[in-house]
Write a structure and sequence with these properties.
The chain has helices at residues 2-31, 58-63, 139-142, and strands spanning 40-45, 48-55, 75-85, 88-89, 98-103, 109-115, 123-124, 129-136, 151-152. The protein is of the alpha+beta class. A 7-stranded mixed β-sheet has the order 6-5-8-3-2-1-9. A hairpin with a 5-residue loop joins strand 5 (98-103) and strand 6 (109-115). The longest helix is centred in the first third of the chain and has 30 residues, at 2-31.
């Protein structure tokens, strides 16, 4: 009888331990997941079209592309702010190498910066930007897009909060 009770207790303890470990791991994974896909707006830069997810509130802007492991060739994230401002972005918890374009209220690219994954280096705008557009690293350079070029379709992104 003792052996059967001991075996049953041992099995219950194993099951409980496994469930507890799963719950802890599940919570950690939930904290480290990328945000679900956001609403998309088409943007045109030169003759190139991007499908840009819109991050227009403090929560979606703060999360950005953190914990995302894929961004297709012509996908992007557009950060929309409530008013033009000097800004700086970093890559903490972001596994993708990205390029960022800071864009003024008229849709003109102020500057472009390349960013390395998982770094906390600041990448500042060179002036007051209303938008920041992140794409795969090198996307702008490969297409000859530079400061002074204009981004079309930003009016469809709405206002930042």
């Amino acid at each position: 009888m003792y052996r059967l009770l001991h075996d049953a207790t041992f099995r219950l303890l194993l099951i409980w331990s496994a469930l507890a470990a799963f719950a802890v791991a599940g919570g950690a994974m939930a904290q480290g997941q990328g945000q679900p896909k956001l609403p998309i707006v088409p943007l045109t830069v030169g003759k190139h079209v991007l499908a840009a997810e819109i991050a227009a509130n403090p929560d979606t802007r703060a999360r950005g592309l953190m914990f995302r492991y894929e961004l297709k060739e012509n996908e992007a994230m557009l950060f929309v702010f409530p008013s033009p401002q000097r800004m700086s972005f970093w890559m903490k918890n972001t596994p993708l190498p990205l390029s960022i374009a800071f864009i003024d209220a008229q849709g003109v690219i102020l500057n472009i910066r390349d960013m390395m994954p998982f770094t906390t280096d600041g990448h500042p705008s060179e002036g007051e930007a209303l938008y920041a557009l992140e794409v795969n690293r090198g996307w702008f350079a490969q297409r000859g897009i530079k400061a002074g070029d204009r981004v079309q379709g930003l009016d469809k992104a709405g206002k930042g909060r």
